[in-house]
What we know:
31% of the residues lie in helices and 26% in strands. It contains eleven helices and eight strands. It starts with 12 loop residues before the first helix and ends with a strand. 41% of the residues are buried.
Amino acid sequence: MEGRGYSDGMVNMGALASSFQSIGADYDRYRPSFPVETLDLLAPEVVENALDLGAGTGKFTELLVRRAHHVVAVEPSQAMLAVLTDKLPRVSTHLAAAEAIPVATASQDLVTVAQAFHWFDRESACAEISRVLRPGGRLALLWNNPDPACPWDRAAYHVAHPGLSLTEDEDGRPRRESLPNLESVSAEAIRWEEQISRQDYLRRWLTVSSFLVAKPSVRAEMVSRIARILDEDPASAGREQLVLPHVTEVLLYRKPGASPSHPRDVVKDVEASWTGSHNSTAART
């Protein structure tokens, strides 16, 4: 899917970002979720207020509600926000952009951005994130990336994003990046696997920005190229069910100042109220 450092010389970023205005249900159905283990990295204890920024259809929001008493989701696509609202009616929502967040100053203990930060205007969005965070509050940036150990998924990724350079250090950890007004805390990678049908894997790519903006003939050729990759790789050839590995990178930042207090005895109570499920096997690296 789209990832950190994404750029495509054939299409401008504005056109790619606006392509998500047209999809909602398909994005939610075919895009992967995130491993529950990410919660222990970004919110080991329950927080009072959390904001999911660029929340999309709530792929990460549905995990975040396990670790926050009050969750706000901000998303600029009406189609995506409608799906989120249907899934998570107790989450407060705003149709808005990261560069103008409609919540009060110093009101949030945690801000999360899953698979979306690369679409933001970095300076403006970081200024707004810093504004809404309380002193000591945290920002978590997350991306699902292809696992280097899976050549067929990596090859498919480069069909969609020929100009993308993935951002790993030599030891396999995500590279830290400096952000204005925020202190870098950690950069971690979580490896996990997903069971997915071949058909759904191909349909997933149709929710990716470069496919959405492509002319129909170009889009069909891109899908055909990915189908050929599946047919030719020994690990995927002839298989209707695929085991798809992911690497989820988690970059954690902190706003300078005293940390907000977190109740230590209510994590299980908050998680018990959650009725969803997440099926994955994950390993932190």
